[in-house]
Amino acid sequence: MQQSEIRKLTEADFPGFAHIAIQAFPANKENTLEYKEKLAGNLLRTQQKSGNIEFYGLFREGKLLGGMRLHSFELNLFGKIVPAGGVGLVAVDLLHKKEKVAKELIEFFIRHFKEKGMSVTLLYPFSPGFYKKMGYGYGTKMNQYQIKPGSFPGADSKEGLTMLTETDGNAIRECYNRFAKKTHGMILKTAYDIEKIFENPENRVAGFFSGSELKGYIVFGFEQVDKKNFLRNHLVVRELIYETPKALSGLAVFLNTQADQIERVIFNTQDDALEYMLGDPANSSNHLIPSVFHETNTSGVGLMYRVSLPENISTHFSGRHFNHVSTCFTMRIHDSFLLEEPSFVCLKLEDGMLGEGKEEEAEFEIELDGSDMSSLLMGAVNARKLYQFGRMKVSDPSYLGLIEKAFQTDPKPVCMTPF
């Protein structure tokens, strides 16, 4: 195989990358010279203006064969804000599929952030199974609800509700980041992220103020139900943030009052208990699950995490509390993507606080794949489930209850950042 070079894209490289991206992801993209030039310009401006997004390409003999977008994030990891890496828009030239271009790009992505000392990287998979083989574990499921507007709780007053504009950008960012700093898994917003909200002409933003402070907001748009009838529309929630129950109630009132013109509110959320807020949680499918369970939502796996520095677990996950458990154990972690031999780490818990352990003091050993280890450390999966499904081995099963208690977390990681 020809030697590959992976480097940051220059201005001259973006037209070529735009062409590759259009062919790799053709949906809603025009295969015209004008569109390619527009996309290339937009990608270049993102790299120049965002402050935390860079594009990299893989070249062989000077030819660009594929590329990707790398993100430097600030991630809430159990209450501790840590740097983390993300990847998106992984695209390969159609003529060079099955030549390990994507594999080499992802290897570079993992190493790139590993060398910066970042333990956690994350991505949205085009194929969950493909990235699971690369050591990425599943995060929290996404649930899509399709709710009648009148099912949201209403009220006689709309006090505190107002429509927001670009001039409210700082207030939106402050509101979001206050919420993010209290929520495991959230990624802090940058000023550029706020600009992108208002650059999209389809976005509308409604906010809820308590006094002079924004305590919640909703970013939404509309989706036509019937192309032959412009009066039939759904309201699509793209982002909903609330800091207090009062703020959520105010935003719910806003959604409730749209009932005269909106058929359904489409809401994607990692909260799987929304039915307790709603008058009628059933979606529009009219499906019954035996015996008589009314379909409320559909769900799917998406965001995936990889913990790439097992030897630094005790440092990077120091913000996580392991439920007052005290023990010492070893973890044998298999990573067939980057390492031929499993890695080995000894951890000690003292009243739930994590530190490095000594092998001679270990009471038991856990053995599992790096993808499942990542999900377990992020709090996305129950340890007993991994054991029951044969995904985790325990040298002494009598410790399983202790392990389950130690790794139990609520809530699971929440992420609202698309990338």
From TrEMBL:
The keyword Protein biosynthesis does not apply. InterPro entries: Acetyltransf_17, Acetyltransferase_Eis, Acyl_CoA_acyltransferase, Eis_dom, GNAT_dom, SCP2_sterol-bd_dom_sf. Keywords: Transferase. GO terms for molecular function: aminoglycoside N-acetyltransferase activity. Gene3D superfamilies: 3.40.630.30, SCP2 sterol-binding domain. Residues 4-159 form the N-acetyltransferase domain. It comes from the Bacteria. Pfam families: Acetyltransf_17, Acetyltransf_9, SCP2_2. GO terms for biological process: aminoglycoside antibiotic catabolic process. This is GNAT family N-acetyltransferase.
